[in-house]
């Protein structure tokens, strides 16, 4: 099977579906890999790295679509774009597809006899953990969200005791205690903030903190809504 990697067309998207290390792993399983030139550049992976890993770099996305049996992307086509038209009949597509929001795209892919796999719909079970791209991206989002909050806040997150006086720690409220929320909670706490989390669901992972580290407690049920606070 020949797997194709194309550059992302969504504005400000920097991710790439397969890295050079991923190419090596797939080559070890006897897959052929073709990559659009510049596909990984925004993510810091340049064409020579793909070539060294064993992939064939092609000049255009059209060339990749023409050769690949399976095309992998971060963001799949949608009802606004017509990128699905470049997929040849009988090929496959693996990406975040959002089929509920893009019914016309799903219909068009089906009409072209394209087998599509929506990464966000893979069951979040133990057997599928290695394919759980949604959780891994949520972890990144929670971490990055905390850093952006620290950057935008017009004061420091941690408490400072200086010769000029004491600056109290910032108070942070994280709304949601799912995968992204837990990472945001942990990151804000590591930065020294006093953290509170609001979980609108009745069943969430709750967290307790000590002075030096955060410990994830066992899963418990709390009446919705619930507020979890960190110790100082």
Summarize the structure in short:
The protein has six helices and 15 strands.
Question: What do you see in this structure?
Answer:
With 232 residues, the protein is of the alpha/beta class. The chain folds into two domains: 2-121, NAD(P)-binding Rossmann-like Domain (Rossmann fold, 3-Layer(aba) Sandwich); 140-229, 3-Layer(aba) Sandwich (Rossmann fold). Helix content is 28%, strand content 25%. It is built from six helices and 15 strands. The strands form five sheets. It has a six-stranded parallel β-sheet with strand order 3-2-1-4-5-6, sandwiched between helices. Strands 9-10-15 form a three-stranded mixed β-sheet, with helices on one face. The longest helix is centred in the middle third of the chain and has 20 residues, at 133-152. It is elongated. Mean pLDDT is 85; it is low at 202-228.
Architecture blueprint of SSEs:
Layout: E1 2-5, H1 20-28, E2 32-36, H2 47-53, E3 56-58, H3 61-67, E4 70-75, E5 92-96, H4 103-111, E6 115-118, H5 133-152, E7 160-162, E8 165-167, E9 171-175, H6 179-190, E10 194-199, E11 203-204, E12 207-209, E13 214-216, E14 220-221, E15 226-229
Parallel strand pairs: 1-2, 1-4, 2-3, 4-5, 5-6, 9-10
Antiparallel strand pairs: 7-8, 10-15, 11-14, 12-13
Helix pairs in contact: 1-2, 5-6
């Amino acid at each position: 099977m020949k797997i194709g990697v194309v550059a992302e067309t969504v504005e400000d998207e920097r991710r790439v579906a397969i890295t050079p290390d991923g190419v090596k792993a797939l080559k070890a399983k006897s897959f052929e890999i073709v990559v659009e030139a510049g596909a990984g550049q925004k993510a810091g992976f340049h064409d020579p790295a793909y070539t060294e890993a064993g992939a064939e770099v092609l000049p255009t996305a059209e060339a990749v679509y023409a050769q690949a049996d399976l095309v992998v992307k971060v963001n799949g086509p949608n009802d606004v774009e017509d990128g699905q038209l470049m997929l040849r009949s009988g090929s496959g597509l693996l990406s975040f597809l959002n089929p509920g929001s893009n019914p016309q795209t799903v219909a068009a892919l089906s009409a072209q006899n394209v087998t599509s796999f929506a990464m966000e719909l893979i069951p979040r079970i133990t057997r599928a953990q290695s394919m759980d791209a949604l959780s891994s991206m949520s972890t990144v989002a929670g971490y990055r969200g905390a850093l952006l909050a620290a950057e935008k806040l017009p004061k420091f997150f941690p408490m400072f005791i200086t010769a000029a006086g004491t600056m109290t720690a910032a108070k942070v409220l994280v709304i949601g205690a799912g995968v992204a929320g837990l990472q945001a909670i942990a990151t804000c706490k590591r930065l020294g903030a006093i953290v509170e989390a609001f979980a609108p669901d009745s069943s969430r992972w709750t967290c307790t903190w000590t002075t030096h580290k955060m410990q994830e407690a066992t899963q418990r049920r709390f009446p919705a809504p619930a507020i979890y606070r960190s110790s100082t």
